[in-house]
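Tutorial handout. Part one gives the primary structure; part two gives the three-dimensional structure as tokens.
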Amino acid sequence: MNTHEDRYRRRDAHVPADFRFIGSLDVIVGVTSALINNPVDVVKTRMQYPQTNKLEGVVDCVTKTIEKEGFTNFYKRTVPRLLGSGLDAAFTLMDYDSLRNILTGRK
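Part two.
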């Protein structure tokens, strides 16, 4: 499998991976995930409220939310989620890399 770590190492297993490089990629993954998932979570939450029985589906929920509150409403409270998701992904994936290196005998 060709991963970013392999590209960084140029396929030389003896070159140690820089945790700053891997960590920055992991933060990018977490932030991208939060930015994509936040609007989906807003729609999901709106559909679950009992007061929203007037909504006829996902498309109706999206259009009514944009009409009443604007597009930026899909990204309310994004900053705390970005911080949490970015750091969570960074630590999780860096721990995974460290554990994989220990178990496979890489340094």
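Part three, for discussion. The mean pLDDT is 76. The chain is about 70% helix and 0% strand.
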